[in-house]
Structure formats: structure tokens, C-alpha cells
Specification:
Layout (H helix, E strand, L loop, with lengths): L2 E3 L12 E7 L8 E6 L6 E3 L26 H14 L5 H10 L5 H7 L7 E4 L5 H9 L4 E4 L7 E3 L2 E4 L10 E7 L8 H10 L1 E12 L4 H6 L13 E2 L2 H10 L2 E8 L4 H10 L21 H16 L5 E8 L2
Parallel strand pairs: 5-6, 5-9, 6-8, 9-10
Antiparallel strand pairs: 1-2, 2-3, 3-4, 4-11, 7-8, 10-13, 12-13
Helix pairs in contact: 1-2
Amino acid sequence: MGSPTEVACRLCGNRTGNHLHTAREMMNGTREPFEYVECGACRCLHIREVPANLGDHYGEGYYSLGDEVGHLGWAERMLRRRRAAHLFGRLDPIGWLVSRVMGPGHYAGWFRRAGVGFDSAIADVGCGSGSLLHLLRSDGFRNLTGIDPFVPSPVQLPGLRIVRSELPAVNGTFDLVMAHHSLEHVADPLQALRDMRAHLRPGGTLLVRIPIAGCWAWRHYGVDWVQLDAPRHLCIPSEEGFRALAAKAGLEITHSEYDSTALQFWGSEQYREGVPMHAPNSYSRNPEASRFDAAAIRDFQARARRLNEQRDGDQACFFLRSAG
């Protein structure tokens, strides 16, 4: 338990029962300390003061500068496109076979639930270098927009544009607006949700994937929880905190599911032992040099699945629509 504080919660304004926790920067391993407020009411975690030099804590290696599609051969591109065509309505025996062998693809369930297809207008807010969008374009999606104020290089291709911008400055509305682990990087998540709602077409869907405060990993690892990610994660809501935030933004949650992974275990174990994410012996950099063998990772994966079923994993996916 951290030290008591009367610093108000940035999400709900509560000042009662709040606590301060001191976390270290452990992705790059600078170990610089940062204070986080844990709300006694909604259980949100937020950084007490946003660093003036926040951009310095990302570094050149934070965003993937490579284009994943560039590493796909023509045969894999063709098979992926046939699979996507099958998954989104075309009767295609080859696509059916590929989907059985390769799996349906990580985005298929999201898009089917959102009711979007190849011609739908899809935006990815906080897209980084746009690797997901490049893959979607390769799979046949034709109306894709990536938005990120720190994107390494703007892109303009048939069916795909990636702009260096904040969302309010972007013209147009979308059938699907996605925010994959970007909302926790903004100091005012309420305004960010309002901005995303303003860019939804009537009947459109907002997909938000975020870490979840108050989860098992936070209760077990505390400030060594890998998804606290000081100081880059500015505000991490609990599930109930996010539901209240969504309502304030004029949004209705239509579906939610937990999608945490083994990272919550091996990443937090490393941080507890003082091993940064980018260290030579980190599992993310060199699995063979880390202390986690294949059996340990399989166990972490199984434990993550159980926590997701119990709605106690350390990240979740929310589908939202305008409430009015």
C-alpha cells in the first residue's frame, strides 16, 4: 500500500482514500522514479505529474519503424487476402482452408463484432508506424486512416493514409475508430473519448483496448506491474472507472472482453528482479538468455486465459457506440 494522499483522482475527482505509489522507469532501465495516484473510489491509477520531457521517455525504438507487410512474400500476401475474403463473406474454399491452417487472424473477431468490411472507413488512433493498417491493406481493406502525432513518416497509398496529427485536426468520420493501447498515453482520457465519439459515423463503433487498474497483476506486483509502464502510461482506469468515463463521454459499452497475455507475468517478474524490458537478458529481446523457458511461458499463457475468463486480466477490449 502506498502512502495516503489528498491528490484528487484525475478521472472521478475523488480525494478520499487515495494513495501515492512510486514506480520506476523500467522499459529502458533508467529507473527514474515517478509518483502515481491510486484512487480509493474508482481504483484508477494516474501519474501525479506529467513529465515536461515525456517524449524523451519513448525513444527511437518505442515505435516499430519497420513495415511488417514488407516482410511478407507474394504467396503469403495472396493467402492472407483469400483468408480475409472468406472470413468476411466470400465463399472461397482456399480461404476456408487457409483460415483453418493459419487461424482466423487476430482482428477478425473485432471487425465482425463491429460489423465492418473491406470498404468500411476504419481509423486507428495512436497507430505508431501503422503496421496493423499495412497488414489490413494487404488483406484487402480499402479505406484506412492512421492518426498519430509522432508517426515516423506520413504515408499516402491507395486505400491507406497515415497522418502526423492529433485526432481533432483530422477531417472525416469513420465506421470504426480503433485505439489499441493508446488511450493510457493521454493525460485527459475523457476528452480523448469525446474526440473519438465525434469522429464516429451514425451507428459506428469505437474499439478501445487498454490496461486495467485494480487487476490481479497490480494487486500482486504493485509498482513492478509491467503495464504501469512509468512514465509513459499517464492514466490507467479500472473497468468500473472506464465504464463511468465512457458514460461521461456520451458512449455506451456494447461488449467487453479481457485479452491479457503472458506479458503480465514474465514482464512483471523481470521488473521485480530489476531486469528492464530492453535488457539483453529480457525475454522480449532474447528468450534464450532470459530465465523463462518454454514451459514457464506456456504456464503464464494458461494463467492469463484463466484470469481473462475471471475478468481479472491486466488488459481488456471494449466496444462502444454513441449513446445519443
